[in-house]
Amino acid sequence: MQGTAKALPGAAHGPKVRARRESGLSIPTLWVTAAWRPRKERGSQPGTPGSEGGSGALSGKSFNSSRKGVPGGTGLGSRTQGGWGPGPGRVLLQVQAPGRGRGPRAGPAWEPGLRPLHPPALGSHARPLGYAQAPPRQIRLRSVPPPPARVYLPCRRRRSRRCWTRRPAPSHRPAARDWLSAVQSEGPERGRAFPAGAPEAGAPGCACAVRAAGLVPAELRSWAVVGQAWSVGSGSAAATGWGAACRMPEIRVTPLGAGQDVGRSCILVSIGGKNVMLDCGMHMGFNDDRRFPDFSYITRNGRLTDFLDCVIISHFHLDHCGALPYFSEMVGYDGPIYMTHPTQAICPILLEDYRKIAVDKKGEANFFTSQMIKDCMKKVVAVHLHQTVQVDDELEIKAYYAGHVLGAAMFQIKVGSESVVYTGDYNMTPDRHLGAAWIDKCRPNLLITESTYATTIRDSKRCRERDFLKKVHETVERGGKVLIPVFALGRAQELCILLETFWERVNLKAPIYFSTGLTEKANHYYKLFITWTNQKIRKTFVQRNMFEFKHIKAFDRAFADNPGPMVVFATPGMLHAGQSLQIFRKWAGNEKNMVIMPGYCVQGTVGHKILSGQRKLEMEGRQVLEVKMQVEYMSFSAHADAKGIMQLVGQAEPESVLLVHGEAKKMEFLKQKIEQEFRVNCYMPANGETVTLPTSPSIPVGISLGLLKREMAQGLLPSAKKPRLLHGTLIMKDSSFQLVSSEQALKELGLAEHQLRFTCRVHLHDSRKEQETAARVYSHLKSVLKDHCVQHLPDGSVTVESILIQAAAHSEDPGTKVLLVSWTYQDEELGSYLTSLLKKGLPQAPS
Amino acid sequence: MDPECSQLLPALCAVLADPRQPVADDTCLEKLLDWFKTITEAGSSLQLLQENPCLVELLCHVLKPQGLSARVLSFSLRLAGVFAAQESCFQYLQQAELLPGLFGEAGPLGQAAWSAPTVRSGWIQGLRSLAQHPSALPFLADCGTLDTIFSLQGDSSLFVASAAGQLLVHILGLSLQGPAEGPPSPQACDWPVCAQKIVGHIEGSLRSMATPQVTQALNVLTTTFGHCHGPWMQVLWERLSPLVACLLQEDPLPAAHSLVDLLLSVARSPVLSSSDCGLWETLAQTLRRLSPAQAGPLALGILKLQDCPQALRAQAFGVLLQPLACVLTAADQAPGPPGLPEGTTGDSVTVDTLLSSKSACAGLLCQTLAHLELLQPLPQRPSPWPQAPLLGAAVTILRFCNGSAAPASDVGGRLCAILAGCVRVQRAALDFLGALAQETGPQELVTQVSAVLLEYLRSPDSSPTVLKKAFQATLRWLLSSPRAPGCCDLDPDTQLFLRELLPVLRKRLCSPCWEVRDSGLEFLTQVTRHWGGQAGFRHALLASEVPELAEQLLRDPESYVRASAVTAVGQLSSQGLHATAASPEQLGGQKESLLAELLHVLSTDSEGFPRRAAMQVFTEWLRDRHADVAEDTERFVARVLQAASRDLDWEVRAQGLELALVFLAQTLGQPSARCPYAVAAPQATPPGPLAQALRALSRVRLFEFAFRALFDCDRPVAQKSCDLLLFLRAQATPSGGLQEAEGSPDVPEAVLAVLRSLDLEGLRGALAESSDHVEKSPQSLLQDMLATVGVRGENQADCY
């Protein structure tokens, strides 16, 4: 059994043991070579969110390596509380595909159909990772500089009981799924073949990880591990459509909306066999079914609630949450929905706002009702920032501050060691009431980021604000009225703070109004969620609540006809209905007045028309409204610009980046920039396209204390520069991996020990009796091998350590004796040496 | 096409054909295409093209390799398809060699733009529109189009791949629905070329060992059998069923999910289900082959079939019940069958699945419970329906989940460990338990149901979503509970249950989770609505503190809860169950206090939901002549209308008009029962002289409110006001009513004069149109698209 894994930088020793298969039989084993290195402290600090140490992987007491159990066990053990983030060191294991290595892979021992030497019983839930016919793989654990004591063990998946990947299986063999099912249901005793070179066997990237954090004391981090285990089975099956729930070492992302597109954000992510929907937005530009993402692509996978593990909403804007009540109350999703507390509180207001327009103003039937909005909100599980929320046993999510609007969050989605970060919309610069987005160095496998301003480096916000205030001021000074159409909550509050401060400073008297009673509502929410605002607002909150405006009053419809200057914030923001449109109609004819559009308007709305320069608008009843008032567009949307996006990528250090929520051309530019600067892959799938990323999921593996102690007793402690090998057997018990001594493994598995010995015949010219020959061999070896225990047994045989030498007569030549030499694989080197020594002949006996 | 649009079209086509002019908003192109579809459906496409040569020019432009944007390219392909859907126009475009250019090798297929999914999608959708007539078939068969569609079935874009499959189904249907007499022969060589190719491709795919290909073929067939009902379907199935049967022999079974869909689709097809074709045997075989999770949907599908052999139904039901049988067996302390239909015992495979992992266990149980819930109300559900064991299973699962079960067996213990605290299963089981309330069961089991529901309602571990389901299930069981014989009151068991339930409800109304308080209030409202008249319920409720708590929740910090509290106390009060109604001497003052409290909510609550709820309660009270209202109706109406007229929420104002209408009807006579807004002669005699009624309306300031609302910026409010005034005018003016009114010196003549002078019918017509009907017009669209050209792109991406 020979094979070498490709050396990685900082690799430990090569495979230490090589077995010859002279006997034609071999124990199916999986060689694990691991090397620990001390953690290099990087990035986040212990205690900060997301930087908790790797979790202790084992619960059983025999595996729970506590510091007191190991001399000098300090440091690492103290960082092993639950949570995510980099642990103390990381060790990678690579699997060499059968037949790809140098060793004699293609021999009959690996043919399908062979029965195991000692079929393991599957009692008490303990079972080997794989079984008999599986080809041996050489695994090497490598230390990778940055993080933690995680051992990445290549294997197909972490738990073979779960569902399987669905790749095409080669035609001549059954897909591994059923092989695995067979193993589970029938046990390997039936000798079902693990197909040689089974689908995906040894495929690059098919790695599962072993997290040893917390089990290995700091001083032992440089141990290399040679483990022995039954090989890990693999399974595959072909997928129909998106995301049949599978457990596979890959992450798949399919945008149903926001793929090379702005609006209707809805991104499906499949990670570690879990399916998550990120945002459930609507497109304001359509009035029919096209406004919602096409959910039929997921409903065809069966019941939605069974298929989707959760929905996550990043913030309350309708292009991120507008389809949620439709999805949950009309399409039939009944599972958990996660969002932050402010988002949960504000979402219904925005949804009600839209419902009013859709149902009552446009006369649309088949739309969600107020009751549905409430029922939907009751399914929401609200999360706090930096709170790790366990969706189920395997899936966890964590929210980070995103700026943008009150309550906006980025989410990290994590299954085992695989993780994806979804940013939603975010802002990397603080504004007047919100802070800047922040994420820790969580190094996700994938960062899904918005890219609205993929090519824009935005000018200073101060300039825009000054410009805005100047225009408002000038209009008011000349006696004109200013209309600012806004959406109920969001940027409106930012502009209110801006105007309020300015009014106060310049001591202006012209009234400012906010329509539809939202000032009060906004006040309520901003007070309630004051911790979500920026530092300045929080600090001054005690003296003065920034959201209790002195100059901004509630608007009454009758005020629109009042003479003199005024500023009015009115909803909706695109001038497509309601109060803002009514005021616009009244004021449009006067060139002294001004309308400032602070956000994007979809086609068809009056906002869109006036922004595109149309000045004669046909209204109901063939009336033509001539727009004489000034029309200004000022973007106050709080998205990260290209610089901010790059900053976030740098902050999170993802392995790959995926762009959504932007225009294709702009994304292309940013994609190249990210790839150049960060040397990571960047993707920009269109809606409906799936990006598949292979991952190296990690599986926690416990190492038994006994094993560690034994290894320590054998020699010097390892160091960062000099890792040591550690031998063990990797077993799976109750869904967890454990590296134990082979004796313990046998005990756990309820197996009897079989020994595999290699044999060799050496012919000696010696006409003496067998006993005498044996005695000569003994004396010779005794003199040569001074450091070894050489014994002459009563039955005439000679032993050197495990090596057994027996002398026999040659059947044909009486002048020749045959030395039968056998040895265990552990003593392979000595065995080989002895054989070669004996082949040279014995020294002449003194006559 | 109207002349204005015709005039704008050339300029627009020029913009679209110009690669330097980006079309930023893709919704515009979608809407433009919608408009062309509408035009072509109404008239001749050929004529349209001839009258607007710019359209053909646009299509010609696409043929030039000039770097058109993917969006415009996709749009043009779809547009060409829309035009070519009419045979005459198809010929015209063929002659101009436009179609081969657009859809053949020379078109986008060979260009770099093909890499954009939107172009591939446009290509497919164009062909889909085009393939409407037999003359399109040779075109499709000759240009290598079919091969491209075959390859697009495996496209990287879900949308494209799915559309390709749909297109194949469509072409197959079109080619086999030809003028050939009778069903086609089973020999493929006799079939039309397109059908031959497609069926050949499907056969090849079914023989393939690559699962994606098998899946694609199965999906195409599923849609085919679902949508096409021609006589050739039988021939097709006869030809393909052996291949499907071969799939069933494979180990492992490839594309099981798609296979299930196909078999059910075939079984539902009227052409095939009537003839046997060995279908039932195939279904039975498939049921045996599939894993428990895969077999569930097939079993449910079979049980929903109308005509299906009894043996197969029994087998399917057995499969469906397997997981519950396992649960019952695992929980059963005494040996013996769990009471399910004969042959349904928990098999080892199902047990293994349930025990394999938490998610597998939860998945299988949730699926099973949902399937049975769907099956339960259907007329074709299996009979006899095993109500008792199902109830037992639901209760057992719930007990496993909350840890209150004490299973005797090893499997039971492990199930318990797996299911402990599993919210997903709890929700599914509670839903199922609620559905089972439609029928009763043995008293012992009903008692168990009550007990387990109470356990869930009581448990501090129940999540808000679980509690909501528990409340819903409880409501269903309560409302289905039998009446005591010979009297209309509740039976003793229900009484007992209520006595235990109300303290739990009281506790839940104090929950820190608003969702729980809200669910509790919703439950209270529902149960009061149904049982408000039952003495037993009234007694139990009044003895509890629930009504007081409900009233306290009028001041809840969460607006949804305040709204639910308003509805609940409104309902309680309507039934005379309001907390403070208990003591007669305080009756008057405290009644006033509830009314005042609700008026306070209406006038001051910062959120719309409680104010809307208050308006609804007031309207109900007025309609039902609630005692509080009847005392001084005019004062009540005046105060409510005054508050509503000032409200910033349009729904509160609309609800105010609803209340005004009820008052109007009570004052002047009932409007038509069918439509309260219909203008019709009064059917009932006014309760008093008209003038007196009008004076009453005037006193409550109804006219002021209605006229103000007539010009409300929110259309539904204006619409409602318009209807109200029309009704008023109809009541006041015809059949001499007006003369009578005029005779009185106090008549609000001015009001009547205004009513007469207003063009209310015209206004109603204008309001009936949606507020954005102008913006939605094609002319507006064309203008917008043209106006957008050259406008800085910055506004485009900036969604919020």
TrEMBL record, chain A:
Cofactor(s) named in the record: Zn(2+)
Domain Metallo-beta-lactamase: 263-480
Ranges of Gly residues composition bias in the record: 70-88
CDD domains documented for this protein: INTS11-like_MBL-fold
GO CC annotation, single: INTAC complex
Keyword Cytoplasm: yes
Any Pfam family matching the protein: Beta-Casp
A Gene Ontology molecular function term of the record: metal ion binding
GO BP: RNA polymerase II transcription initiation surveillance; snRNA 3'-end processing; transcription elongation by RNA polymerase II
Superkingdom of source: Eukaryota
InterPro entries the record matches: Beta_Casp (IPR022712), INTS11-like_MBL-fold (IPR041897), IntS11_C (IPR048662), MBL (IPR050698), Metallo-B-lactamas (IPR001279), RibonucZ/Hydroxyglut_hydro (IPR036866), RMMBL (IPR011108)
Domain Beta-Casp: 492-610
Region (Disordered): 1-129
UniProt keyword Glycoprotein present: no
Gene3D superfamilies: 3.40.50.10890, Ribonuclease Z/Hydroxyacylglutathione hydrolase-like (3.60.15.10)
Assembly behavior: Component of the Integrator complex, composed of core subunits INTS1, INTS2, INTS3, INTS4, INTS5, INTS6, INTS7, INTS8, INTS9/RC74, INTS10, INTS11/CPSF3L, INTS12, INTS13, INTS14 and INTS15. The core complex associates with protein phosphatase 2A subunits PPP2CA and PPP2R1A, to form the Integrator-PP2A (INTAC) complex. INTS11 is part of the RNA endonuclease subcomplex, composed of INTS4, INTS9, INTS11 and inositol hexakisphosphate (InsP6). Interacts with WDR73; interaction is required for the assembly of the RNA endonuclease subcomplex in the cytoplasm.
PANTHER family: CLEAVAGE AND POLYADENYLATION SPECIFICITY FACTOR FAMILY MEMBER, INTEGRATOR COMPLEX SUBUNIT 11
Descriptive protein name: Integrator complex subunit 11
Species the sequence originates in: Equus caballus (Horse)
Highest classification ranks of the organism: Eukaryota, Metazoa, Chordata, Craniata, Vertebrata
UniProtKB/TrEMBL annotation, chain B:
One annotated Gene Ontology cellular component of this protein: cytoplasm
Main location: cytoplasm
KW Cytoplasm (keyword) present: yes
GO biological process annotation, one example: DNA damage response
Subcellular location: Cytoplasm
Protein name in the entry: BRCA1 associated ATM activator 1
Secretion signal span: none
This protein's encoding gene: BRAT1
